Amino acid sequence: MGKALKRKGDNNMKKMRKIFAVLLTLAMVLGMSMTTFAAGSSATITLNNLDDAESLKMIQIIKPNPSTSSGWEFINGAEAAFTTAIPGKNAQSILWGLVKYQITQNGGTFEAPAGVTDIATITSSDIDKALENIDFANARDLTGETSVTVSTAGVYAFSAAKTGYVYRVMSAYVGFGVAQDGTYPSLEDTSVSAKRSSNTVTKTTTDENHVVAIGDTVEYSIETEVPFIPANHPDNRTFKITDKISGADYITDSSSYTIKMGTTKATATPVADASIAFNGDKFEIDLSSLVSDISNPNYGKKIFVTYKAKITAVHTNNTAKGHFPGSETDSDPVDLYTGQITLFKHDSTNTTKGLANAEFTVSKDGHDLKFVYNSETGKYTYAPNDASASTTIKTGTDGNVIIEGLDVGDYVFTETKAPTGYSKANVTKTITISQTGVASKIIEVGDDLANTKLSALPATGGIGTTIFTIAGCVIMIAAAGLFFASRKKSDNK
User: Fold this and answer.
1) Which residues, listed in sequence order, are joined to residue 141 by a DSSP beta bridge?
2) Cα–Cα distance between 441 and 338 in angstroms, integer?
3) Is residue 156 within 8 Å of residue 140, measured between CB atoms?
4) Which string of DSSP letters, residue by residue, matches 319-383?
5) What pLDDT digit, counting tens, does each position of 101-152 carry?
6) Burial call 298-308: b when 16+ CB within 10 Å, e when fewer
7) Which of 104, 188, 205, 473 fits as disulfide partner to 177, beta carbons 3.0 to 4.6 Å?
8) Which has the closest alpha carbon to 198: 159, 239, 170, 242?
9) For the residues 398-406, what does the mean pLDDT come to?
10) Which region, left, alpha or beta, applies to residue 133 given φ > 0 means left and ψ of -120 to 50 means alpha?
11) Residues with Cβ < 8 Å from 384, sequence gap 6 or more?
12) DSSP state of 144
């Protein structure tokens, strides 16, 4: 008799454990993980990477109910959220469907318990839809917390928010396990991790100090993430990147840009069929194909875009923008600047007296540079690719000559023609453009160079001229007298 009762008790315990094993699979349905640590009558849910959220809320959505066929029930309005996401099925059908979904997802075979015939077919998108429909109006505020203690088994939903990020609604399952003292059931600790994508757009350039020269080719990079778009938004699944530039021209051939996706820039791979649609000073990249699947297989993956542009002005501005459903995000602008040199030509004896029309050539690294004069600004703009550009620059009426559009480096000024009344300088002038850190404006440097007046000649009609004239006349008269005297003497013979 005793042995029979013992066998019956063992069988009942095995059945109970099977039931609990089925119920435990509900934890995995919503992306949860369980530890093997038993926490007694309460459990701790560790909140991973959620302490920096600007808002974090928690609400329980499933709790135990031994009177139901599944042993669980929806609470706090979650039933409406799930039945809306999975129409045509009641709460218990959906709960059993969640169990079946996870078992089959993990490669197992689901066998319905006796009497359970109505089991909903569940997809990952259905789960996302349901969680996005959860009402957090009466949820518990956990902002800034790293863990939370609960005293009831079941499923807990979490909603987080932070500027620059899109969070998925997350969930954690607190299940039953064996306590350290051997008692069963007991609540088990678990955790939930942040599931989010960044909607920030980062813009950089390979030119570290942001100083360039007109004509330079510069490479830019854009980085952002594929956004998470809730499955209950099937009609607004768009994701685009746009860019606008001034002071430069895009290089539009396909070899000048890349569009890749991956965890890191080094390991990222090209996005199939993605290309840049250029339109003057703008371009657009349509990446909506990456978010068209409502199961969001790409969410959170990084997008890396590189492209090139040729500098055409003394200041270049470039800004990218990410277009996500319901929002647009601008990158910080990337500004590039050029250098400007002013050389002041003056009298060697009067340093405030500017000298006009002194002509120079300017060289860098042994090569003469070409410039185009801008009459509106009074400056010579570096123009390496302009057929009308000249290597000769000239000081204005104030004695200044200004050249712009230059990169950092040493620039050698050689005077080729002196101002009227002055001798040409017999030395060159080297002026250096340099930059420490990232430039925030056009870099302006200057120097001066003196000219000496030509040596003075005696003035016309002065005493010096008179003496020379008289002396010349006397010599000429004496010579003439000697000549005629010589002729007369010759005739007398």
Assistant:
1) 57
2) 8
3) no
4) EEEEEETTEEEEPPPEEEE-EEEEEEEEETTEEEEE----EEEEEETTEE--EEEETTTTEEEE-
5) 878 887 899 888 888 999 999 998 899 899 999 999 999 999 999 999 999 9
6) bbbebbbbbbb
7) 188
8) 239
9) 98
10) alpha
11) 213, 214, 215, 369, 370
12) T
CA-based max dimension of the chain: 190
Among 57, 272, 248, which residue's Cα sits nearest to residue 148?
57
For β-strands 33-38 and 72-74, DSSP reports them as unpaired
Tell me what pLDDT residue 352 has. 96
Which tokens sit at 191?
């955790």
Structural tokens at position 308: 């090139």
Radius of gyration of the chain measured on its C-alpha atoms:
43
Q: Which of 310, 365, 376, 371 has the alpha carbon at shortest distance from 340?
A: 371
Distance separating alpha carbons of residues 168 and 128, to the nearest angstrom = 8
148-152, 226-230, 275-279, 485-489: lowest mean pLDDT where? 485-489
The count of C-alpha atoms lying within 13 angstroms of the C-alpha of 81, restricted to the half-sphere facing its C-beta, is 19
Residue 470 has pLDDT above 80, yes or no: no
Single out the residue of 10, 23, 314, 324 nearest to residue 188, CA to CA.
23
* Alpha carbon 401 to its chain's center: 38
Residue carrying structure tokens 């002041």: 344
Q: Give pTM, 2 decimals.
A: 0.75
Look up residue 456 and give its two tokens. 């003075």
What are 76's two structure tokens? 């706090």
User: For residue 232, which of 91, 134, 88 has the smallest C-alpha distance?
Assistant: 134
d(CA 493, CA 489): 7
The pLDDT tens digits of the residues spanning 349-389 come to: 999 999 999 999 999 999 999 999 999 999 999 999 999 99
Cis peptide, bond prior to residue 419, ω within 30 of zero: no
Q: How many CA atoms lie within 13 A of 409 on its CB side?
A: 15
Percentages helix, strand, coil for the chain (3-state, rounded to 5) are 20, 40, 40
**Distance, CA of 352 to CA of 294 (rounded, Å):** 74
